[in-house]
Amino acid sequence: MNLTFDFAFEGFRLIRQRPKLIALWGAITLFGHGVISLILVQMAGPAITRFGQLMTDASTTGAFDPAAIEAQLQIIMPAMVMSVPVYILMSSVLACAICRASLGETDDRLGFLSFGLPELRMIALRSVMALGLIGILLAGGLLGQIVAVSGNAQAAQGMTTLGFLVAGGIAVWLGIRLSLNGPQTFDTGRFNLFGSFNLTRERFWSLFTGYATAGALALVVQFLCDKVIEAIQVLSLGLKVTGDIVPPDMSNMSTFLVPHSIILLFLTFGIVTPLMAAITLGAPVAAYRVLREKGEALKTEQKVS
């Protein structure tokens, strides 16, 4: 059973058929990412600002300060950990809404948004997937730590890089092989972490190409939207034209909640983010739908014969 390439464009189809989904899904992403942003600013605003400065210095002057970067990351990480449950909750509700829209449900009064057992199963599934990803990346980083015991810092750095590359490759492979477990769990009404393996067998490259295309399209959409947002910032606030969006100052709440930041957050999280979510999350749902329908057709043919 060949997998057609059309699944990569599922997000565009959903939005074209029901443009109101952007507003309804945007309310969810705006609230979720708004809460995440406030958590990050409140808990680690100065560290995030300093980290950005260190990375800018490293890219422009080549002055890389690992100790200073690590110190800022130690402050940032607890805030990120606090943000993860909010993100999983938001993305799970949105993923279920996209499943309803793509798998044929018709009651779109609230943009297919709901909260019940499907969302709870999706939260559990995404939490397990996130823990698995963290475990894979930590295992990759352990290679460098093991070598560091020998006292060879250069070899330890090389093994750490190699470990992360290997872990990244494993994560990509597993991510694609397990990419249909969300739609499958939603459709069957049962928590199913590994059932996706059967559906994705011998279809890795078809799925990889489709997901890469969907990701590339999402980046193009984001780039075009960023230019529109920059124009809105310039026209509404009289800011200088720089060719880039004016980023928010996350040092503290008073510098974060200013007009240009609020405009940026509202347009980005309220419009751009749900559109990108439809593109990236819609692709695996459409792929699952196609494979499910082909599987059902094949079983029917086998019964007839």
Write a concise synopsis of the structure shown.
This protein is an all-alpha fold.
Structural notes for this entry:
- The protein is mainly α.
- It has one domain (5-136, 200-304).
- The chain is 79% helix and 0% strand.
- The chain contains 10 helices and no strands.
- The chain has helices at 10-17, 20-61, 66-102, 117-148, 153-177, 181-188, 196-200, 204-237, 253-256, 259-304.
- It starts with 9 loop residues before the first helix and ends with a helix.
- The mean pLDDT is 85.
Write the layout of secondary structure elements.
Elements: H1 10-17, H2 20-61, H3 66-102, H4 117-148, H5 153-177, H6 181-188, H7 196-200, H8 204-237, H9 253-256, H10 259-304
The count of strands amounts to: 0
Helix count from the secondary structure assignment: 10
What's the overall geometry?
A: globular
* N-to-C SSE string, H for helix and E for strand: HHHHHHHHHH
Describe the main β-sheet briefly. none
Secondary-structure-derived class:
mainly alpha
Unreliable residue runs: none
Helix content: over 70%
Q: Work out the count of structural domains.
A: 1
Give the DSSP E fraction (strand runs of 2 or more residues). under 5%
Counting copies of identical and different chains, the oligomeric state is: single chain
N/C terminus separation? 18 Å
Mean pLDDT: 85
* Cα radius of gyration in angstroms: 22 Å
For the structure shown, list the relevant keywords.
single chain, 305 residues, mainly alpha, 79% helix, globular
